[in-house]
Amino acid sequence: MSPTTIAYGYLTIAIICEVVGTTFLVKSEQFTRLVPTLMMGALYAVSFYLLAQTLKTIPLGIAYALWGGLGIVLTSLAGVVLFKQNLDTAAVVGIAMIVGGVVVMNLLSNSVVH
């Protein structure tokens, strides 16, 4: 497997861990519940570790844009599905712009490692 494939695999898992960790942040109820708080901390630690491993191959700006952008989109979806939170039109447009930015960056930028 190529280093780039491995790096994008690490980044994918890092994003998933960050999103799941953020759902545990909600469940921790401001750090008053031990198990969700510990799960959040562990998942964030794994996410940052894997993000750091990603940076061996993928430039910081690209990796962080993907990690942050996709994390925002997936966390917003988790809020809607798991916590019955509503997204108004402005939020949906903003999320669409983030997705568009990630797509443009991946398809058109020479900075992205393929």
From TrEMBL:
Residue stretches spanning the membrane: 6-26, 33-52, 64-83, 90-108
Principal localisation: membrane
Cell compartment(s), UniProt: Cell membrane
Keyword Cell inner membrane part of the UniProt annotation: no
UniProtKB keywords: Cell membrane, Membrane, Transmembrane, Transmembrane helix, Transport
InterPro entries with a match to the protein in the record: EmrE-like (IPR037185), Small_drug/metabolite_transptr (IPR000390), Small_multidrug_res (IPR045324)
Topology of this chain in the membrane: Multi-pass membrane protein
Signal peptide start-end: none
PANTHER family for this protein: MULTIDRUG TRANSPORTER EMRE, SMR FAMILY PROTON-DEPENDENT DRUG EFFLUX TRANSPORTER SUGE
Similarity section: Belongs to the drug/metabolite transporter (DMT) superfamily. Small multidrug resistance (SMR) (TC 2.A.7.1) family.
Name recorded for this polypeptide: Multidrug efflux SMR transporter
Organism, as annotated: Psychrobacter proteolyticus
